[in-house]
Design brief:
The chain is about 30% helix and about 10% strand. The protein has about 90 residues and is of the alpha/beta class. Strands 2-1-3 form a three-stranded parallel sheet.
Length: about 90
């Protein structure tokens, strides 16, 4: 397995840090931070290119208009509607 020519700085949130794929990324030369290690090095930590989490959403300026939809979808995941309850987002 070779190294990646275009390396990334990646934050991996629990429980994904235990995935073998994360070790593969590290072996390819990507910089991998756990949440604790990134917080500890916050003053000197590089800008993140990618955040891997079980329910992570990507938001950029281009996605700004979708922020209300992302909030509504996250709420539905965390607080699913009860049976018979109307989900109005």
């Amino acid at each position: 397995m070779g190294t990646a020519p275009k390396r990334l700085v990646i934050l991996v949130l629990p429980p994904l840090e235990t995935w073998p794929e994360v070790e593969t990324l590290r072996a390819q030369g990507h910089t991998i931070f756990s949440l604790a290690s990134y917080i500890t090095s916050a003053d000197t930590a590089p800008r993140l290119d990618l955040i891997l989490g079980p329910e992570a959403w990507r938001m950029t300026e281009a996605h700004r208009k979708y922020l209300p939809l992302a909030i509504a979808a996250a709420r539905r995941l965390k607080y699913p509607p009860k049976k018979g309850e109307v989900d109005d987002g």
